[in-house]
Amino acid sequence: MIPQKKIPTKAFVVDSPKSPFVLQDVVLDEVRENEVLVEMKYTGLCHTDIVVQNGAIPVGDYPAVLGHEGAGIVRRVGSGVKDKSLSEGDQVFLSFTTCHNCAPCQEGRHGFCSRFTEINFGGVRGISAADSPISSVDGKAIRGQFFGQSSMSKLAIVPETSIVKSPADSGVTDADMASLAPLGCGYLTGAGTVLNVLKLKSASRLAVLGMGAVGLAALMAARAQGVETVIAVDIVDAKLELATSLGASHTLNTKLVPDLAQGLHELFPDGVDQIIDTTGVVSLLQSSIKALGHEGTLAIVGVAPAGASLSIDPLEFMINCKRVVGAIEGSSNPATVSHSLCTL
């Protein structure tokens, strides 16, 4: 029986920047009226979790419970939750949350929320750990509701706005949730960048840098949209083989070429139309700019080091009508994109 208040559970806690993830007993205060208690069955481990573990995004307090690709079962529903179909036992995926008031949110582009960083990195209830629903057994505040969820916890108190109910007609089983947990970020980001940000044409030449969850999702979304030319880029041959099996038309191992731009120009002398970078590696970003063809667009999705910079030739940029855009969570509304991906 789960108590109404002071709910005991276990979570992986990062005590301070660069500290390891340590499994320990923690306490959740109580489920507020707009919140849901979720028993976590699976969670992804995203590169962003590692970046925050290392203190590279200076927003929010420590200690902290991270994790933002959760999938689990509803165990309690707050009295004020608006979705009256949500009930105990429901299968749910967890994603980021936003203010729902700014212009991007009002337009359905929730990933571009003007308060995204504050809310998701600091915590939904407030940016101070003192506002968090999580504390240690001796009462010390722990930053929680990271991206609305802090999914590296057996039980999590989650705002309704981070809940995506599994579609009733999707056929998703509890076992499927293990591979679908990254819907909350990785898959959503890769596919959303293709569908919402770049809006590719079938004749587009797309290069995707990094064949992790984000890159593979971008690859598969592009192929599902009818894009014929998708170049998978990585340094691991096994990942490139996987990309080929999922529809990549070309592969490029950047360990085998002097730089990315040269490798892509050998395949396409006029350059490529779009590049999605999921790596955050600054040298690849710089080379990507050179690899773009006329009207080419570089979408930066991966987390680069704080303070890093890129250089451009403004005249060359203007003459060739190039663009560089940043994209968070694929400019997606999780409630709609996650459902679409489940049935894609």
TrEMBL record:
Domain Enoyl reductase (ER) residue range list: 18-344
Family, as annotated: Belongs to the zinc-containing alcohol dehydrogenase family.
Family annotation (Gene3D superfamilies): Medium-chain alcohol dehydrogenases, catalytic domain, NAD(P)-binding Rossmann-like Domain
Organism from which the protein derives: Penicillium subrubescens
Cofactor: Zn(2+)
CDD domains with a match to the protein in the record: benzyl_alcohol_DH
InterPro entries on file: ADH-like_C (IPR013149), ADH-like_N (IPR013154), ADH_Zn_CS (IPR002328), ER (IPR020843), GroES-like_sf (IPR011032), NAD(P)-bd_dom_sf (IPR036291)
Protein name according to UniProt: Aryl-alcohol dehydrogenase
SUPFAM superfamilies: GroES-like (SSF50129), NAD(P)-binding Rossmann-fold domains (SSF51735)
